[in-house]
Known about the structure:
Keywords: ATP-binding, Ligase, Nucleotide-binding, Purine biosynthesis. By secondary structure, the protein is an alpha+beta fold. It has two domains: 6-82, Phosphorylase Kinase, domain 1 (2-Layer Sandwich), CATH 3.30.200.20; 85-224, ATP-grasp fold, B domain (D-amino Acid Aminotransferase, Chain A, domain 1). It is built from six helices and 13 strands. The protein has helices at 46-63, 99-105, 134-139, 145-167, 216-219, 225-235, and strands at residues 6-9, 13-17, 23-28, 31-34, 39-42, 70-73, 78-82, 85-96, 112-122, 131-132, 171-185, 188-194, 202-206. Strands 8, 9, 10, 11, 12 and 13 form a six-stranded antiparallel β-sheet that branches. Strands 1-2-3-7-6 form a five-stranded antiparallel β-sheet, with helices on one face. Helix 1 (46-63) runs parallel beside helix 6 (225-235). The protein is globular and about 50 Å long. The model has no long low-confidence stretch (mean pLDDT 96). The structure holds cytidine-5'-monophosphate (C5P). Cytidine-5'-monophosphate binds next to strand 8, helix 2, strand 11 and strand 13. Cytidine-5'-monophosphate (C5P) binds at residues 90, 92, 98-101, 129, 175-177, 201-203, 215.
Amino acid sequence: MKQRRRIYEGKxxxxxxxxxxxxxxxxxxxxATAFNAKKHDVIEGKGVLNNRISEHIFTRLGALGIPTHxxxxxxxxxxxxxxxxxxPIEVVVRNVAAGSIAKRLGLEEGTVLPRSIIEFxxxxxxxxxxxxxxxxxxAFGWANPQEIDxxxxxxxxxxxxxxxxxxxIGIQLVDFKIEFGRLFENDTMRVxxxxxxxxxxxxxxxxxxxxxxxxxxxxxxxxxxxxxYTEVARxxxxxxxxx
Length: 243
Ligand code: C5P
């Protein structure tokens, strides 16, 4: 691989400097982590699948008019993206109780929520990404009220679109996490969808069997993660039958 300057290395991805100013290369690793990296493994093939699945989702969202950092996929593991200033907030959208909300509020996993719920978490590994409210976000200056509005409006549209897209292929979108960034262009700034959307960052349940097709297979030691992600990709129509 050509020597490139590494800008940032996260748990599942690396960012390298891109070919043009204002661009970066996002590399998808095979590393799987959970519980804030207390659990770690390397699952061969995961990065390739997430690259393809995230490309597909970002392309579909872009076509819908949701601004994103995505430019194009370069190869099996890399995407060309626009450089953004990441807003240090993880936005979680939930349709069905699972994971931390089930635990926190004593809800049975699988309970359909009265309506979709948006939550904010402060991106900070040392603090284990604590849940925060709009009050905290604006008081500490992590994002301003307009940016919060933009993130919420896009999150609702993304949830509506992805829920429909997945239901069409027999998958229930239980919840997902997204991140946003500030894109500076011609003296203007706008908030765009960044990072990735993949089975690493979503809960995806098969509608008929209720089988988990997401990273809970790793978190809960269920095995079969690559097979599950491959099934998601296959149903999205981005793999050939014999891939
Ligand atoms: O653990 P929790 O139930 O709060 O996760 C909600 C959703 O956000 C899940 O789909 C999970 O995969 C995703 N998530 C993530 N990265 C985090 C925390 C949660 O992708 N750091």
